[in-house]
């Protein structure tokens, strides 16, 4: 999944960008008050996408 697709998916589930880190961006979900980092790579591995969604408390994208 591309990083852009992942970010659009997270925004659609109520998550918000919080701040830039070294090589990662930090996102948070106001509903669950949880934070997680999202790598700034063009493509994000499926296992990483699953981990990000789990950390933010949002459902995984279809097919992952």
Rg computed from alpha carbons, rounded to a whole number of angstroms: 10 Å
CATH architecture: 2-Layer Sandwich
How widely separated are the two ends? 10 Å
Run of helices and strands: HEEEH
* Name of the CATH first level: Alpha Beta
The spatial strand order of the largest sheet comes to: 1-2-3
Q: Provide the β-strand percentage band.
A: 25-35%
Strand tally, please? 3
The coarse silhouette is globular
**Helical content class:** 25-40%
Main sheet, how many strands, which sense, barrel? 3 strands, antiparallel
Compute the average pLDDT.
97
How many separate helices?
2
Provide an overview of this structure.
The chain is an alpha+beta fold and about 60 residues long. It has one domain (about 5-55): Metal Transport, Frataxin, Chain A (2-Layer Sandwich), CATH 3.30.920. Helices cover about 35% and strands about 25% of the residues. It contains 2 helices and 3 strands; from the N terminus they run αβββα. The chain has helices spanning about 5-10, 45-55, and strands at about 15-20, 25-30, 35-40. A 3-stranded antiparallel beta sheet has the order 1-2-3. It starts with a helix and ends in an 8-residue tail after the last helix. The mean pLDDT is about 95.
């Amino acid at each position: 999944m591309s990083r852009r697709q992942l970010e659009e998916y997270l925004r659609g589930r109520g998550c918000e960008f919080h701040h830039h880190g070294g090589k990662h961006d930090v996102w948070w979900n106001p509903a669950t008050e949880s934070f997680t980092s999202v790598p700034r790579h063009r493509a994000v591995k499926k296992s990483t996408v699953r981990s990000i969604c789990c950390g933010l408390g949002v459902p995984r994208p279809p097919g992952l």
